[in-house]
Specification:
With 140 residues, the protein is an alpha+beta fold. The protein contains five helices and four strands; from the N terminus they run αβαββαααβ.
């Protein structure tokens, strides 16, 4: 029994670490924005909300998508923040987004599931945090 538990622990650890790596064929979406924070809201407040509530809600509403919040330290987008979205493939991304970046029918259904997190975001920013710019990158 002890050997089985050790094997399961190793297998689970290996599976979790494998799921977090980029692989050939993945699509990486890089969305950069500069949120307009409401008075009295710090970037730390917004970052805590975004990583603690918005990203988990997004990942639940859009199955198969992994998201990470990033912060620019220097360069062209210094002071900006962004979100990296990882899709398993172009087909996976295309289930939710059209060629022009608008939501598909399934994407709209998924977006509607964001309800509470989207509403709570209004406490932090003056307008939705649509990206100022974005690119989707194919991992070769």
């Amino acid at each position: 029994m002890k050997k089985v538990l050790i094997f399961l622990a190793i297998a689970l650890t290996g599976n979790c670490s494998f799921g977090q790596t980029l692989q050939k064929g993945n699509v990486l979406g890089l969305h950069i924005t500069a949120p307009n924070l409401k008075d009295g809201v710090s970037m730390e407040d917004y970052t805590n909300f975004f990583t603690g509530k918005m990203i988990p809600a997004y990942e639940k509403a859009f199955p198969g998508v992994k998201a990470y919040l990033i912060k620019s330290l220097r360069g062209q987008d210094d002071g900006s923040m962004g979100v990296i979205f990882i899709f398993s493939s172009e087909a996976a991304r295309n289930k939710y987004f059209n060629d022009d970046g608008t939501l598909t029918k399934l994407g709209n259904e998924a977006s509607a599931k964001m309800g509470d997190a989207d509403k709570e975001e209004d406490k932090y920013v003056t307008s939705p945090t649509a990206p100022d710019k974005y690119n989707d990158w194919l991992v070769e």
